[in-house]
């Protein structure tokens, strides 16, 4: 054992393979902390579609893209606070008060959308009182635009209005709350030509954030009555749907690619290891029986393995999977895929185990065991299986890349697992999504592609290291 361990450690390929596999296993274990997270659920959206990784802003073409922003605006002048989140503003009769909220914008136009919102509550001192709240937007060059006008009438907030309204209260005045969402409600929508209204969500950000600079949101409270007016309103909240996000950006739904990649690593490892172990178990049983007993049993098993090896594996796998699913079989797709891959992939392993068993069967200690009266099952259990363990361990490592490639191929074609992310369906979704940005979403395509290559190569060289370490010639 000491010699075997020394040979393994002395191989650089073994060390590198263990490090790579350990890293991917660590990533897979980390994905368990996500719980029942499903990136294909609409609630998983964290940024804009095709948001680039946050670190990619070191490249010139991405350096000015806006990240996710969610913050409360601070007024440029001191205002009396109603509580920790609200302001209390009193406007004298027949006058107005202007409250400015600066926004220092350091990015390009937020193409994925933005929102400015706040709640307000007017407190009037008489049953009939005229007032209006205008919102204006000022660009860095000093150009100002009227965004929206809020006027209560019969306890409702009207948008797109330019005339004065009033509240007529006969009995008790009940306070109300209203929310102004500038991205959704703006006088610009009515002022735009008909052909531009359909692209309003694109046109408004271009108009409001044409370049970097200091912008200003102004609330103009106009009191056209003979009584003071009190307005209580929350701090305006400014949010932007980011175009940069996290370690690996987002996919076409705005979900984080890193979480998809981590969950995909776990599922791929689970499928590959379970299927590989099952392949080796089936192949080892048939291989040992064929190699040890020989004769007609050997001819029958060799003929069966040759038959499976001659059939194109992937087309047969697709046909069997489709037929079983259409027949209404009560089995999870994951388990079905593992079983089908195992059933169709064991012949190669069986031939390798058979050749090793033939070699072991003719050795002296097998003849001695027979002379001592041991039956075939005891000989296989005591002498054949222990001598096959090295090749079995190596074969498990060799079969993992095969399973990963088959399973990824199915997912890529849309015939495998689609409800949860795998590296294969990540590539499939990335290649099949119809989008002008899709061809440039390298952060979505490269991680699963590189992951498949690295994991497959790591297990392949791990198998080579096992063969070299357990070889008696070394």
In the predicted model, the low-confidence regions spanning at least 5 consecutive residues are 153-188
Q: Mind telling me the CATH class of the largest domain?
A: Mainly Alpha
**C-alpha Rg (nearest Å):** 35 Å
Number of structural domains? 2
Relative strand content: 15-25%
Structural class: alpha+beta
Q: Give the ordered list of helices and strands.
A: HHEEEEEEEEEHHHEEEHHHHHHHH
Number of strands: 12
CATH topology of the largest domain: MetI-like fold
Query: What is the end-to-end distance?
Result: 13 Å
> Which CATH architecture of the largest domain is right?
Orthogonal Bundle
The number of helical runs is 13
User: Which whole number gives the mean pLDDT?
Assistant: 79
Helix % is: 40-55%
CATH homologous superfamily annotation of the largest domain: MetI-like
GO cellular component, one term: plasma membrane
Organism: Acidianus hospitalis (strain W1)
Subcellular location: Cell membrane; Membrane
Pfam families: BPD_transp_1 (PF00528)
């Amino acid at each position: 054992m000491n010699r075997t361990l020394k040979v393994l450690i002395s191989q650089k390929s073994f060390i590198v393979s263990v490090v790579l596999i350990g890293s991917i296993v660590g990533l897979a274990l980390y994905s368990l902390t996500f719980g029942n997270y499903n990136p294909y659920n609409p609630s998983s959206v964290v940024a804009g579609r095709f948001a680039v990784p946050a670190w990619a802003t070191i490249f010139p073409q991405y350096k000015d893209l806006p990240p996710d922003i969610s913050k409360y605006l601070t007024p440029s002048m001191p205002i009396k606070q109603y509580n920790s989140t609200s302001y209390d503003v009193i406007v004298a009769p027949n006058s107005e008060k202007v409250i400015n909220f600066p926004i220092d914008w350091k990015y390009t136009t937020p193409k994925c959308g933005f929102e400015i919102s706040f709640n307000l509550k007017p407190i009037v001192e008489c049953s009939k009182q005229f007032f209006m709240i205008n919102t204006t937007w000022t660009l860095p060059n000093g150009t100002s635009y009227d965004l929206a006008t809020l006027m209560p009438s019969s306890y409702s907030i009207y948008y797109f209005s330019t005339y004065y309204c009033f509240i007529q209260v006969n009995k008790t005045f009940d306070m109300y709350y209203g929310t102004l969402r500038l991205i959704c409600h703006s006088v610009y929508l009515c002022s735009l030509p008909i052909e531009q209204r359909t692209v309003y969500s694109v046109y408004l950000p271009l108009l409001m954030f044409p370049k970097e600079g200091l912008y200003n949101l102004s609330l103009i409270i106009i009191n056209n009555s003979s009584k003071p007016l009190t307005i209580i309103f929350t701090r305006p909240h400014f949010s932007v749907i980011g175009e940069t996000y996290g370690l690996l950006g987002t996919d076409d739904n705005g979900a984080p690619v890193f979480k998809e990649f981590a969950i995909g690593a776990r599922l791929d490892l689970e499928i590959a290891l379970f299927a590989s172990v099952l392949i080796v178990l089936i192949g080892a049983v048939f291989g040992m029986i064929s190699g040890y007993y020989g004769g007609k049993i050997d001819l029958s098993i060799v003929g069966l393995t040759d038959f499976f090896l001659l059939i194109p594996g992937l087309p047969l796998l697709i046909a069997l999977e489709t037929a079983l699913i259409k027949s209404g079989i009560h089995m999870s797709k994951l388990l079905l895929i593992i079983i089908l891959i195992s059933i169709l992939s064991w012949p190669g392993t069986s031939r390798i185990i058979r050749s090793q068993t033939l070699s072991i069967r003719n050795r002296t200690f097998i003849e001695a065991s027979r002379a001592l009266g041991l039956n075939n099952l005891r000989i296989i259990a005591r002498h054949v299986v222990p001598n096959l363990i090295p090749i079995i361990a190596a074969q498990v490592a060799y079969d993992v890349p095969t399973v990963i490639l088959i399973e990824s191929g199915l997912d890529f074609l849309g015939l495998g697992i689609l409800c949860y992310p795998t590296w294969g369906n990540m590539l499939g979704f990335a290649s099949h999504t119809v989008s002008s940005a899709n061809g440039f979403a390298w952060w979505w395509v490269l991680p699963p592609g590189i992951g498949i290559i690295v994991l497959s190569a790591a297990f392949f060289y791990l198998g080579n290291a096992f063969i070299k370490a357990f070889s008696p010639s070394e």
